[in-house]
Design goal:
9 helices, single chain, Rossmann fold, 2 domains, three-stranded mixed sheet
């Protein structure tokens, strides 16, 4: 099937239908569960540093309101589109339900490449996006709580928090409008490395499953395993770091501008320090 006809949300629906056959729920209930309850597609202008005006495309999807608030990240990526955001919001609903976390699924996205914008331009985009969400009641501690995702982090969440609190003076739980904030602004310690730790835990369980390892001709456990990591952002770095600390050997790192390889193993912290020094100079 070509990419032109592929639908991410359609694929999620097919998986849902496949699983639903093993339940006894009424068809109408199942149809209501898999539908996206609310989709907000927006366009807004921002003034670039060079004085030009650019129209930004952005989305926020609230897949389910069976439990509130809705919960899900906001990503900055050129690949963002309505189909993708709907699919990711639906998956958030199911992920929360599986682990019995009382949230409905949500997801947001802004169709930009963050590397093409200055810090000031990104701040303007993030704040305007937040203002648009506020206008339509698509953000709030009891309504819809965003979080970091691909291309976003603590900085963007701090801008969202500041915009929300400025437009809701006196709201005592305003800080709960977004998660993934800096610790100094009410964020939770451990949030930064949480996703990378999740990747490590998931793969550690696979490596500890004897049947799987026997089929691959490998020993059980993480120690001694060779690991290649694509991307050295927040998730990639912490995943690699946890594998390294557990005795695995990180032999390859790939980033958008190139890759490095060493059969002897790569020191993740040394790479990160070098990368920061190169950025400075």
């Amino acid at each position: 099937m070509s990419d032109q006809h592929y639908s991410f949300f359609g694929a999620v629906e097919k998986s849902f239908d496949k699983a639903a056959k093993h339940t006894k729920w009424d068809e109408g209930i199942l149809g209501q569960i898999k539908a996206c309850n609310a989709v907000y597609r927006m366009r807004f202008p921002i003034k670039r540093d060079n004085g030009s005006i650019e129209v930004i495309e952005a989305y926020r999807v609230q897949h389910s309101h069976h439990k509130t608030p809705c919960k899900g990240g906001i990503r900055f990526s050129e690949a963002v589109n309505q189909d993708e955001v709907m699919a990711l919001a639906a998956l958030m609903t199911y992920k929360c339900a599986i682990v019995n976390v009382p949230f409905g699924g949500g997801k947001g996205g802004i169709k930009i490449n963050p590397k093409d914008y200055t810090t000031y331009e990104l701040e303007k985009i993030t704040r305007r996006y937040t203002a648009e969400l506020i206008k339509k009641n698509f953000i709030g501690p009891g309504t819809d709580v965003p979080a970091p995702d691909y291309g976003t982090g603590e900085r963007e969440m701090a801008w969202i928090l500041d915009t929300y609190t400025a437009m809701h003076p006196g709201e005592i739980d305003a800080a709960g409008c977004v998660t993934g904030k800096p610790v100094t602004q009410g964020g939770v310690r451990g949030r930064r490395e949480a996703t990378g730790l999740g990747v490590f835990f998931g793969l550690r369980e696979v490596c500890n499953t004897k049947a799987v390892m026997d089929k691959l001709g490998l020993t059980t456990g993480v120690e001694g395993k060779r690991v290649v990591v694509q991307g050295l952002g927040n998730v990639g770095y912490h995943s690699a770091k946890f594998f390294q600390d557990a005795g695995a050997k990180v032999v390859g790192l790939a980033e958008y501008e190139g890759a490095i390889w060493s059969d002897a193993g790569i020191d993740i912290d040394a790479v990160l320090i070098t990368e920061k020094l190169l950025v400075q100079y």
